[in-house]
Amino acid sequence: MMPESAMDIVRCPSCEGAGWYADDESDESLTCDWCGGVGYVYRDLEGVDHRIPPADYDRLTPTLERLETERLRELGYSGNAKKPWEQDIRKGTHGGVNPYESE
Ligand SMILES: [Zn+2]
Fold it and tell me: What are the residues whose beta carbon lies below 5 Å from ligand 1 (ion)?
């Protein structure tokens, strides 16, 4: 086992940092198996990815938040979170209704 300091934290190659992916057949949002929904994984010196254990989340929160901010910026967000009714995951729920749409 490598010391943790030798591990980079990289965007999950499976879900691109989202932590989930849309299932092609059912169109459902599924938690990414590769990273366990974190969106990021450890990459060791040999280039092998390891899921980040939940015990490490607290310690890594500042790093993960920074990476997440970078990712959202790349996607074109200005740094504000999506409004609830803009999130696909809420479609069809009460929170998925845009209160500002014409009545
Ligand atoms: Zn993933």
Answer: 12, 14-15, 32, 34-35
**Ramachandran class of 32: left when φ > 0, alpha when ψ lies in -120 to 50, beta otherwise:** beta
Is 52 in contact with 38 (CB distance < 8 Å)? yes
**pLDDT exceeds cutoff 80 at 87:** no
| C-alpha 30 to ligand 1 mean position (Å) | 10
Residue 79 token pair: 């740094």
- How far is ligand 1, taken at its centre, from the CA of residue 31, in Å? 8
> 42 burial class (0-12, 13-18, 19+ CB within 10 angstroms)?
buried
Cα–Cα distances in angstroms (integers) from residue 40 to residues 24, 85, 103, in the given order: 22, 26, 41
Distance 13 CA to ligand 1 centre (A): 7
For the stretch 11-67, pLDDT in tens is: 999 999 999 988 888 888 999 999 999 999 999 999 999 999 999 999 999 999 999
pLDDT at residue number 47: 94
